[in-house]
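During the no-cost extension, the postdoctoral fellow (Dr. R.K.) reprocessed legacy sequence entries with the updated structure-token encoder. One reprocessed record is reproduced below for audit purposes.
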Amino acid sequence: MKHEVYYWARPGKQNTDKTMEVALKRGKQLKIKHFVVASCSGYTTKRLLKKGEGISIISVSHQVGFRTSGQSEMSKKTEEYLTKKGVTVYTGTHFFGGLGRAIRFRFGGLEVEELAANTLRILGQGVKVAVEIAIMALDAGLIPYDKEVISIGGTGQGADTAIVCLPKHGKEFFSFDVREIICKPRLRK
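Re-encoded structure tokens follow.
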């Protein structure tokens, strides 16, 4: 099998539109209908929505309180807009966060989840994010089990990474299968 992999010169938001284009192109080639996208403000999801037709979009955001206690990073207006356009918006605790992060914040040290996250970051922040949000979407029942999806992540804001993957539930983390890297930054931050 032959397929192009795209490498961006540097990570960041400036790669968002091109990332969406190549992800959608690969999705069409593989007949993949489910796209999971990391989006805190809704910007990245709107970019995918603008370019993609006939696909199921699952937008995954940080949990409420990630930046500021009690507050969501996505406005209600944006969430309502996306929902009306057929997007499933999911806000939940990071797979690589949660209780382990709370223990680290309180007592210091290294959590198992953080070790796994940092290992994935060897391939870039976007790969880590793409794996994490696919697990979160599957654990929430928002994508079908045992079907390939395209998962889109980024470094900071926007999108710069897309993968084809066969996600597994969090309890089956080591069976998660990254089948293809569609695009990613050539350099880490």
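Helices lie at 16-30, 43-51, 76-84, 99-107, 112-120, 125-139. The chain has one domain: 6-60+75-185. The remaining legacy entries will be reprocessed before the final report is submitted.
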